[in-house]
Amino acid sequence: MRVLVVEDERNLADAIVRGLRKRGMAVDVAYDGDAGHEAAFVTRYDVVVLDRDLPGMHGDQICAELAASGTLTRVLMLTASDSVADRVEGLGLGADDYLPKPFAFDELVARVQALGRRATPAAPPVLQVGDVVLDPARRVVTRAGAPVDLTNKEFGVLSELVKARGAVVSSEELLERVWDANTDPFTTIVRVTVRTLRKKLGDPPLIETVVGAGYRTVGS
Known about the structure:
The chain is α/β, with parallel strands linked by helices. It folds into two domains: 2-119, Rossmann fold (3-Layer(aba) Sandwich); 127-217, Arc Repressor Mutant, subunit A. The chain is built from eight helices and eleven strands. It has helices at 10-22, 33-42, 59-69, 84-92, 105-119, 152-163, 171-178, 189-201, and strands spanning 2-6, 26-30, 47-51, 74-79, 97-100, 127-129, 132-135, 140-143, 146-147, 207-210, 214-217. The strands form three sheets. It has a five-stranded parallel beta sheet with strand order 2-1-3-4-5, sandwiched between helices. The chain has a four-stranded antiparallel beta sheet with strand order 6-7-8-9, with helices on one face. The longest helix has 15 residues, at 105-119. The protein is elongated. 33% of the residues are buried. The model has no long low-confidence stretch (mean pLDDT 88). GO terms for molecular function: phosphorelay response regulator activity; transcription cis-regulatory region binding. This is DNA-binding response regulator. Residues 2-116 form the Response regulatory domain.
């Protein structure tokens, strides 16, 4: 899942980013409204965690523009105010959910995960290709019934490939969906991750390289 955090309180923003990354999400951060607006319209995020009162462009305007654009990106609006009027106003702007500060981090994670599920086309609760079964909710992968221990990035790559159902997924698409904006676009990290993923999955090979195009699963 790709998430953008737009929050001007840097300590809070950085804490949210660290926590979401530990949960296996690819997370970018912006510390003001202008940077947040640019990021939200350059990259397709599943969820934007958006502070309402931002320097530069106000969070209300960012939210309204995202809603008007028709994007599948979901918006979780944060605010220091807990009044019913403010919640109604925020939701009226197009926010998908609203969380007042201070909040429990586990609740934030649960809300982001729920919104992320709404941001992508419906998929079966358990994904399967050949004898490989991937359970996104429990983050568990098995092959022929035996567990396969994957890192968060390996799990993310496998998930994107399996969801594509045999269609080719480019390295650029995998970078955008699994890694964050700090990743060098010219890095070989996708190739390295696919190589280790193949090794862990074993034989027969599940992932095929399509020269000049990307990767796809075989045996779908």
